[in-house]
Specification:
The chain contains ten helices and ten strands. The strands form three sheets. A five-stranded antiparallel beta sheet has the order 1-2-3-5-4, sandwiched between helices. A three-stranded antiparallel beta sheet has the order 6-8-9, with helices on one face. A hairpin with a 4-residue loop joins strand 4 and strand 5. Helix 5 runs antiparallel to helix 8. The chain is globular and about 60 Å long. The N and C termini lie far apart (51 Å). The relative contact order is 0.13.
Amino acid sequence: MNPDIYTIAKRLSPHQVESVTELQKGGNSRIYKVLTNKGVYALKRYPLPSAKDPRDRLHTETLALQYMRKHGIKNIPEVIAKDPEQAYSLLNWIDGDAVTQINDNDIISFAQFLSKLAEMSGTATEENMPYASEACVSGSMILQHIEQRMEKLEKAACEHTELEEFLSRILKPYIQGATDRARNFYSKHNLSFNKDIDRKFQVLIPSDFGGHNALRSAGGLYFLDFEYFGWDDPVTSTANFLLHPAMSLSEHQKQQFLTLMEKLFIKSDPLYAERLTALLPLYAARMCNIILGEFIPERFAHRVQSGQYKVEDKQSILSGQLAKAKKLIKLSLI
C-alpha cells in the first residue's frame, strides 16, 4: 500500500484507520476501502485538473452530492471529508453489488432519480452549479463535440486500417445524415441550431448515468459517480442512458424509459420528445466517438498507467471497442 494513501486516509477519516485497500482502478478515478475501528469508508482519488483536462471533478462531485443531500436525496454517497489540494474525498461506505442485469423495476428507479433532479433544478440557481461535462444545450454543441473527437480519431486511424475504413465509409456519412436530420427539425420549428435551449428547459443531470454507476443494496439502488454533473438539456440524459455501451436494455425497457422521461418533461418542455427524436442520431455518433477513444494513443497509455489495461491486450481491446461502435451505429441507423 502506498504510504501516502494511508496518510491521506488517516487525515480525512474521523476514526482510527486500521487498513486501506485499493478496490477500483478506473480510467479516471480510483477507489479505496478504508477500514476504521468504528466503521468503513470509501476513499476516492480524482485526476487533478490539468491543461489538457481542466475539469475539477472533486469539486463537481462533492458539490453535487452535498446539494442533492440538502434536497432530501439519500440514495447517493455522503461526503465525510475532502482534500481539494490533492483531489481526494472520503465518502460513507455503501454495501451493495454491481448492477449487472437491469430489470423493469430498475428502469423505474432510474427515472425516479432523474425526476428528483428535475424537481430540484428549479431551486438550484443560487448554488452556482456548473454545466455538465460536455453539455449539449444546442445542436451545434453536440456537433462540436463530435468534430473535436473525430479530428483525434482520424489522426489515430493512420495506424489502424479498420478504424479508418469505419470512419470514412460508415461513421462520417452517418454523421452527415444525422446533422441534416437535426437541422431540418430546427428549421421546421423556426429555431436556431446554434442557440442554447432556454434555461427554463435545462435541468441538472448526472451525465454519465446507468447501471455501471449504481449499486444494488438491500434498500434499493444507490447512484454513484457525479464527476460530470451539471446543467444540460434533459435530452442528453435520456440519450446517454439509452446509448451507453455498458447498458444492455431490452426494447421493452428502452420504451419504458422513453415513456417515463416523456411524461416527466413534456408538460414543461413541449418539444422535448421531438427534439429527442431529431437529435438522438447525433448523440449516437458522439457515443461512438467516445467508445473509439481507446484508439487515441495518449488515452490508451493513460489507461495502462492507471492499471485498467495491459499493453499486451491492446489489440483485443481496440477490436472490442470497434465492434461496440459498429453495433451502436447499426442499431441507430437513420
